[in-house]
Amino acid sequence: MKPHLACLLVAVATLVLPGLAHACGNGAVQFADDFKTPDAGWRHNDHVKIGNGAIAVSPLANRTEIADDTTYIFSDADVCARIKLSDFTKPEQLSGGLSFWITDPNNYFAFNIYPTGHWKITRLVAGMRGVPVSSGNSDAIKKGAGDVNEVEIRISGDTGTGYVNGTKIASFKGQPPAGGGTFGVDAESEDERTNIWEFRDFKILKLQ
Question: What secondary structure does DSSP assign to 43-72, as a single string?
Fold first, then answer.
């Protein structure tokens, strides 16, 4: 179990039946980064390296790391990225995805997928990550080492939907910060080792 698994999750995530394929990025681009010349607003540290076409996130064992671009604040948005995990031993212990409604590194929501095919939506409050009220599994999630998954979160008001590889797999209600928040990426490592997650082609688009 990861540290900080203590607070009650306010967001309510519910499993939904897979929908029709949905192409990530139908709206007008509000922010995009291919990380070849990264935007200067990205928050990073020794465990978050940015450049050469990707954000590489390597949390310490049994830890979580996020990276967000603090320059841009949005309310409604369609956020997408491609994710790759090249090596892992215990797929049930680690996940990666998109972070959203971020006010600071200790307060945000996350939509994550596991290399088991599992997904979850969680909220971090004052540094304490809550156990999802509901989560699920999806055949849309690619499970192999080195596989690339396209993850998307669509936010409208206090509701959102999660997509993986064009398939709708989750819906939820939550508590967005007043005035909007930043968006970014989220990753966690296995209990006894560090894993490296790569995120590419990060985009924030106007919700349609």
Answer: ---TTEEEETTEEEE-PPTT-EEEEEBTT-
pTM of the complete model beyond 0.70: yes
Gap between the Cα atoms of 116 and 190, Å rounded: 13
CB burial readout 86-103, b (16+ within 10 A) else e: eebeebebbbbbbbbbbe
3-state DSSP assignment of residue 92: helix
User: Cα dihedral sign for 158, 161, 131, 96?
Assistant: negative
* pLDDT tens per residue across span 10-61: 333 333 334 434 457 678 999 999 999 999 999 889 999 999 999 999 999 9
- Is 5-201 assigned to CATH 2.60.120.560? yes
Centre a 10 Å sphere on the Cβ of residue 142 and count the other Cβ atoms it contains.
18
Residues 6+ apart with CB under 8 A from 29: 203, 204, 205, 206
Residue 93 has φ and ψ, to the nearest 5°, of: -100, -5
Residue 158 CA: distances (Å) to CA of 39, 45, 119: 28, 30, 20
**Pairwise CA distance, residues 6 & 38, whole Å:** 35
Strand pairing of 128-131 and 107-113?
A: unpaired
